[in-house]
């Protein structure tokens, strides 16, 4: 056991943006000395910045340099390839650390709940995204891209990411860190049209304007929007600025039609998937036309008009949202799919806190997690001052590393991750790519655990 004047020991579970911002906020404050151990299920850090953010958005991915600076702090250690809840338990962490912060994100997906949803050819966009980003648990997947039209269900930025990747010229993707297996599959893709379908109207879509505006660059012949679906309506001046900007972009798209037969993106609004049909795999998607209703609170909702439309397609990607999954022993709010908490303090937990998507649900951009993490860290420090969080010393750092190495012989430390990072960057350099990702657990561990191999 460590002495009480030792630094406050904190375990952070999950190495995505929220975990790193929590670490940064703890290291930046000067009320109490801290030491941080970050646990990550994968051999690599950065969560969705590595395995979610699209490879053709390298500027956004470059936020990882902020996380690398935090990881270089002398009071910070990375323990990758450790599944909390599997390799080590919640109780083991709470007995070894003064505080535990869960930053595990939302690993599940929301479903459509329609007939035919489980047919081959109906896939979760979340899995497709992890596949093209080289997440080692998803690298074995394969997608049939031999149809002419793919349909993406959903009206957020993830839907646009997926549409862009499916439409982009392969030479352009070949300059990114997209997984090699995805690049190869996309090279042989026969998809000519990617239709993105939204339940409500154009004014309710949650796209951000830069993502909407850049779309034509990633196609051969532009973006198709039906003029009737973006017609001007009275009172638009009162809409939020982002909506007004989006409508302006959509109207520009509606003014000209893409050339038939050349790769393009189609945006369709006020339609819901009703059924997927096919003999053994998806061949058709039945869409229902919706009308829009304004509730007493001003919220716009979609109501089925009963009108149907059949779309021929062999690939339907569901991009209707992520969903948190419970962690063994921790409370879980099934309705909101989050760990219930008060300003980040886990409800009923003694020394447990949450940050990021598992705290508030899958909303907001990377930067939103910084403010969110600051709130949780403030609460943790307040609890420390008030005695609600009682220090119990925790194990000393060397004893923890010894315990972990026994528990997980494939433990990947910061040094191991540095070897992976260097190997990936070196492989990318001759091809003008930021990195060539190692996409299997075996490859990642071979490099991380064998410094001699990495040098050779
Ligand atoms: C497809 C996609 C694209 C996006 N693109 C953008 C974008 O372009 N710009 C932008 O600003 N935002 C973007 N976002 C949003 C952004 O990625 C999130 O706001 C952010 O990643 C949430 O951070 P987090 O730390 O809560 O979760 P995550 O980033 O998901 O990190 C959670 C981490 O916890 C680990 N973990 C989970 N369970 C365990 C366990 N039991 N034990 C140990 N480790 C565990 C996971 O492996 C993961 O590394 C995108 C999101 C998605 C899904």
From TrEMBL:
Coiled-coil regions listed: none
Keywords: FAD, Flavoprotein, NADP, Oxidoreductase
UniProt-recorded Gene Ontology molecular function terms: ferredoxin-NADP+ reductase activity
Its EC number(s): 1.18.1.2
Pfam families in the record: Pyr_redox_2
Transmembrane segments: none
Cofactor(s) needed: FAD
Binding site for FAD: 18, 40, 48, 84, 357, 364-366
Entries under InterPro entries matching the protein: FAD/NAD-bd_sf (IPR036188), FAD/NAD-binding_dom (IPR023753), Ferredox_Rdtase (IPR055275), Ferredox_Rdtase_adrenod (IPR021163)
Name of the protein: ferredoxin--NADP(+) reductase
Organism from which the protein derives: Amycolatopsis taiwanensis
